[in-house]
Amino acid sequence: MALDYTIYFNNRKFTITSNSDELPWFDASFFYWGHTEPDDIPKLILFLQNHTEVLALFACTPKPDDTMNHFTYNFNHIEAAGGVVSNANNEILLIKRLGRWDLPKGKVEPNETIPAAAIREVTEETGIKNITLEKLLTTTYHTYSLNGKPMLKSTHWFKMHAQINEPLKPQSEEGIEQVKWVKRSDLYVYLANSYASLLSVLEALD
Known about the structure:
Elements: E1 5-9, E2 12-17, E3 30-33, H1 40-50, E4 56-60, H2 64-72, E5 76-86, E6 91-97, E7 100-102, E8 105-107, H3 114-126, E9 131-146, E10 149-162, E11 176-183, H4 187-191, H5 197-203
Parallel strand pairs: 1-9, 2-4, 3-4, 5-10
Antiparallel strand pairs: 1-2, 5-8, 6-7, 6-11, 9-10
């Protein structure tokens, strides 16, 4: 089932979709809003924030791009970029920050392209310098609060490749405790207690 945009509120989802045919209509933990108009978006955001029993909210619309733009208007928007870095042994590079395993990523700087930001952030956080950028995998969205302001972060994830023999150096000043190559078959074990949005990044891998 193709869903156009999924925005994470912690581990709960606000999904904007033009395909309502295969939605799980009989699941009581999901909420559905058909034919979503721009004026509906603030009300739906507030509803999801106030009803923690709802695990996923679906806003159905024939114009998902326009609806996503109206969603974005309700937040301070930040662009970020990161990488899913593999090596010849089919391992993936993970970082550990604040006790959680994660993928390397960070904010796009002013006048910086998104692909350049992805390479820079991976290099800074892991110490790896010789990175081959392959393709854009997916973009994830999540909300949070910063100094009382509602924030929306769009993170653009790229498939990358690096050599296994490069030295790894955690960026300690950014709170990164460890950098590690992990077997692809073990990724879900490491990321099981991490951020829900990372699962969609793993699903985008070939």
